[in-house]
Design a protein that fits this description.
- The structure is a homodimer.
- Chain A is of the alpha/beta class and about 325 residues long.
- Helices cover about 50% and strands about 15% of the residues of chain A.
- The first copy, chain A, is built from 12 helices and 11 strands.
- In chain A, strand 1 (about 5-10), helix 1 (about 20-30) and strand 2 (about 35-40) form a beta-alpha-beta unit.
- The interface between A and B is large, with 58 and 58 residues.
Chain lengths: ~325, ~325
């Protein structure tokens, strides 16, 4: 039997909350018998759900953080929001992980301000599993830190490698720096400085990657600053979205193509499932003292379920403990 | 009858040179009766071709710049290479434009060092037409300048807007900054500074774009630094390539899907044509004193033909003159 894990869940996070969150919670609880959930939200949402589901506790909150609010200000002000309370439960040890499909900015602010960073971690990084049809690969940072220093990327690389190995199952992952040429001297001054420091400090570092290597899955972990990573991730989403939509248009354009569509429907649905972000249910914020996952605002119940289960997996694999050790080891090596 | 234009062409540029270059030249000369070509390369390549094609002159060169060489060093050293000579013909006024599908780095170095910048242009920018299935859009810089200052991006924006309007036919183009959020305060410190300066100086600036806006063609011109732009462009290429390859695999996986493939073949071929980089045949380097186009190393004859024709179009639309005027006007406005 798997180790018991408690995850706090923000019932109000996401474009279709609370309904999809409740459905996702129910599915996660049903799939993982060692999972408990503390559901944070308004009494009328969380109490009936907790009453009708085993291993679910209601945590009533009274405030709501909306998409338009300034993240850090909202987190500081609305201490009784589902987001802040969910994180506080992790801080206090009542839960080991937290899941929300709410505003990314507010989630990052709450996780960082309320739960706090692992000792020695300079900046937590938002990490994503890119759903390549070739195989899943990890990319970090994808948006937590628009401005970075090379030493942050060294930590992102180690955290990403631990996540890739323990949670995604990519053993001895190859870590590459997202850059604009293969050769060591390529790229911006920042990229060159990152390359040199990664070469020195990251044992799994293999060199530079380019944009096309991401979906081709030519490496296991793509490390980058949060600006470049966010642009790359959204570019992948946009490109895949437009191409699949265009193909859908082609398939529906005539009787002949409609017949063709029937013949290849299963394969295309499978592809659509593969390149969907739902499989892992969200992006973990690595480097905070808990298994925090930020779900996509458009999450469906499957994505919510998988986000909660991934959070539980991060706890069971002790990713926080491993990051803590790795960061201490890097600091010792650097004589810090 | 269109205005007479002479373009110098590097017979040795590209993975499949000289054969595809010769085929592309022949096709361009045949399609555009007002076009002349000066073909630069070894005597045994360029002389027979010029002898058998009207409006083509042979320019014999004796040196070769290879992919592995340091771009600027190679350009300085090999003054009798097809690349350097091709650019010198533009500098000397014998040609108005230059096309090569050789090493991007060497082409940029040759164009900048030999032809030179338009007065007032701080940095030339490599500009690409992103072949979105929705409609073509322009992105710049896609790799000439890994490190930029905000004032460079203001010039990139103006040059990209002129190109979008005059060469691609997007009237009154909407210019957006590639960033990681729509709101003005989003992004790195650099992106925020660019946003503020573009807001002040670029009349067609409409705000921030995100990665997914590129292939969705939500704006006409995406302006960015050469690092981010290069990552985004290669990410699009990689994503489109992997998805189309995966779909090809699905179509060939069983008898049923093979029947489906037959029914939708025409539509898919059309899509493949649309998202192909061949249509515009390469990336213009805007800001130098000539219509320089850098073709993809993997260019086929169609891409070479279109690259040469696009170069001629840049000349006929007087893009260099318009950039020169625009840059002077920006400088006057700034009291420089």
């Amino acid at each position: 039997m798997a180790k018991s894990v408690t995850i706090s869940v923000d019932a109000l996070g996401g474009d279709h909350a609370p309904q999809v969150v409740l459905e996702g919670c129910a599915a996660a609880l049903s799939q993982d018998p060692s999972l408990s959930v503390i559901l944070c939200g308004p009494a009328e949402v969380v109490e009936p759900f907790a009453a009708s589901h085993e291993r679910c506790t209601a945590q009533v909150t009274t405030e709501v953080i909306t998409m338009g609010e300034h993240p850090a200000q909202a987190v500081r002000k609305k201490k009784n929001s589902s987001l802040v309370v969910g994180c506080r439960l992790v801080k206090e040890g009542q839960a080991q992980g937290f899941f929300s499909a709410g505003s990314t900015g507010a989630c990052l602010a709450a996780a960082t301000l309320v739960i706090g960073r692992i000792k020695g971690v300079k900046r937590p990084c938002l990490t994503t599993v890119v759903p390549s049809p070739v195989r899943p690969v990890v990319m970090c940072d994808v948006g937590a830190n628009a401005d970075c220093k090379p030493e942050y990327l060294v930590q992102f690389a180690r955290m990403g490698a631990i996540y890739a190995e323990k949670v995604i199952g990519l053993s001895d992952p190859q870590v590459a720096l997202l850059n604009i040429g293969e050769e060591e001297e390529k790229g911006s001054e920042f990229a060159q400085a990152c390359h040199a420091l990664l070469r020195e400090k990251e044992p799994n570092f293999v060199g530079n990657a380019e944009g096309r290597d991401i979906l081709e899955a030519n490496f296991d972990v793509f490390v980058t600053d949060g600006f470049t990573g966010n642009v790359a991730l959204k570019t992948i989403e946009g490109t895949a979205g437009v191409l699949l939509k265009t193909i859908k248009g082609i398939l529906g354009s005539s009787l002949k193509t409609k017949i063709g569509a029937l013949c290849i429907k299963d394969g295309l649905m499978e592809l659509k499932g593969t390149v969907s972000a739902d499989t892992y249910g969200g992006a973990p914020l690595l480097g905070v003292k808990g298994a925090c996952i930020v779900g996509h605002g458009s999450s469906n119940p499957t994505a919510i379920k998988n986000g909660i289960l991934t959070s539980a997996r991060i706890v069971r694999e002790d990713v926080v403990g491993m990051i803590s050790q790795a960061v201490s080891a890097q600091a010792d090596k650097a004589g810090e």
